[in-house]
Specification:
503 residues; mainly alpha; Serine Threonine Protein Phosphatase 5, Tetratricopeptide repeat; Rossmann fold; 2 domains; five-stranded parallel beta sheet; 25 helices; 61% helix; 6% strand; globular
């Protein structure tokens, strides 16, 4: 075949893959690998399609073939590293980033990618070494300067971090991410040192930059439509709806699956801390915001309105397989805990497919929740776009926790609310209560949860906070920012009252 034939067929496979039909795309790439076995990009994209179908061994074989064919292609090797990172295989991702850096001795991007992942897995000395390599190559590089300051802050060198961040902001960095991320990072330092008004100014600047980079109005419209649909559906259900659903899917027709629990609540309500305490139990395998619900269960659920017992069993099996693929052998025989705050708004779907699901809901003072969300620098999507203003955050809180207030009135399922304030005041007492709700006896290793957290890659924005013993600094933090929260206080007041947080 001619080069033009190759490009035509490769373009066709890419179009099919981009449409989401990964099964068909995989067959097309497989055929291309037979026709053009020496073309690295085909093997790379073949691996990507296999990965989307969670055929991990097949994906790895394809990626290894691609890297063997083009060992100097730093960009491709780095992209494979990002695939491993998304698969929660941090060591393999780091190996790819290091390999990409070796292939490109003057490359900044693979070294920054390596530094970012090393920091997220709490290997700060190694992260610092990778950043220093970047600065040796280019002392003015925006990303390296920013990340050096972030490491300063993580190491407790707040004065040095502040100095570097102010210099970086003054230099007007060209990198869009660095322009707003440096302001978010400086706001963290200012908050820690009691300069609350200046922290708010930095956050406002950061959010204005982010808003200018994205069509936020489009994202908000998509969010509002989805939130309203979920609200209408939930409120339209009678309190005995779970009994009705169980009649269509009785226990006798359910295939056996591992023990399963859902840990939800609004983001920044202490879900990560509780997840880590539970995960330290030898009989638990907890997952930090896995993609199984949003990428597997929810899309499959909506493909067909026919929910026969066979269909629901298939949905359950696909979801469990996705969780186990993330966990590997660590899941064998254990209670699976899916910690996922945002899908709390989709609890009716969870309960439709898993009537036996045990549900833990983390609570925290709504004012602290909203404030903490406002401080977060996280990639925008149709949910997180609400974090750009206090007004939208109050709406998002009401949307999500309003669903919970309705669903907790339904008859016939097992749920427990747990307060962040109680957890940090007496970690063992509250941790024991939550463990026993899940059918577990308290284990001594749960007292030292932070030792395990330091070895685990977490995907929550709070990954830095749960690698040390419990602290109470974040309780009632909102008082320092009360004047900024005053305009949304009326919107949050019903939830403060419902969850027992006085004014």
């Amino acid at each position: 075949m001619t080069p033009s034939d190759l490009q035509k067929r490769l373009s066709e496979a890419r179009e099919v893959s981009q449409s989401g039909d990964f099964s068909r795309a995989l067959l097309m790439y497989e055929k291309l690998t037979r026709q053009y076995p020496g073309v690295a990009v085909i093997w790379y994209e073949y691996g990507n399609a296999a990965c989307k179908l969670r055929k991990i061994r097949q994906a790895e074989q394809a990626w290894n073939q691609a890297m063997g064919l083009d060992p100097r292609n730093a960009r491709m090797i780095g992209l494979i590293g990002h695939q491993y990172q998304a698969m929660r295989q941090a060591d393999k991702a780091c190996a790819c980033f290091a390999r990409a850096a070796a292939a490109d001795p003057r490359g900044i991007n693979p070294r920054i990618s390596l530094a970012v992942l090393l920091e997220k897995t709490h290997r700060l000395d190694q992260a610092r070494a990778a950043v220093q390599e970047c600065l040796a190559l280019d002392p003015s590089d925006d990303q390296a300067r920013y990340f050096s300051a972030l490491l300063d802050r993580r190491e407790g060198k707040l004065e040095l971090a502040e100095s570097r961040l102010r210099d970086l902001i003054t230099s007007q960095p060209r990198h869009p991410f660095v322009r707003y991320a440096s302001r978010y990072e400086l706001a963290q330092v200012l908050d820690r040192t009691g300069r609350f008004d200046e922290a708010m100014r930095m956050l406002l600047e950061a959010k204005q930059i982010v808003g200018a980079l994205t069509d936020t109005a489009l994202l908000l419209r998509g969010y509002d439509q989805s939130a309203e649909s979920g609200r209408r559906f939930t409120l339209s259900q009678p309190k005995d709806i779970l009994h009705t659903w169980a009649g269509f899917f009785p226990a006798a027709k359910r295939e056996t699956i591992p023990r399963l629990a859902f840990l939800g609540g609004h983001p920044r309500s202490g879900t990560t801390l509780l997840e880590q305490i539970l995960d330290a139990h030898p009989e638990v395998a907890a997952l930090d915001e896995p993609a199984a619900f949003l990428e597997v269960l929810q899309p499959e659920f909506h493909k067909s309105h026919q929910l026969s017992s066979q269909r629901v069993n298939t949905l359950r099996r696909l979801y469990i397989q996705a969780l186990q693929a993330d966990l590997g052998v660590a899941s064998a025989g254990k209670l699976l805990v899916d910690k996922n705050p945002s899908p709390t708004a989709r609890l009716p779907l969870w309960l439709r497919v898993f009537p036996e699901l045990r549900v833990l809901i983390a609570l925290r003072d709504p004012r602290d929740v909203v404030l903490s969300c406002y401080f977060q620098n996280i990639p925008l999507n149709s949910t997180n776009v609400n974090f750009l203003s206090f007004e939208r955050l109050a709406k998002h809180y009401a949307d999500l926790m309003g669903i919970w207030l309705a669903v907790r009135e339904w008859d016939g399922f097992a749920w427990l609310e747990t307060r962040y304030e109680d957890l940090v005041a007496d970690m063992e007492k509250e941790g024991r209560r939550c463990s026993e709700f899940l059918g577990l006896e308290w284990h001594e290793s749960q007292k030292r949860f932070y030792e395990q957290s330091g070895r685990k890659q977490l995907y929550s924005p709070t990954y830095q906070d749960v690698t040390r013993p419990v602290y109470t600094r974040s309780v009632a933090r909102w008082h320092a920012y009360e004047k900024y929260l005053a305009p949304i206080a009326p919107a949050l007041e019903p939830y403060c009252r419902a969850f027992g947080y006085p004014g």
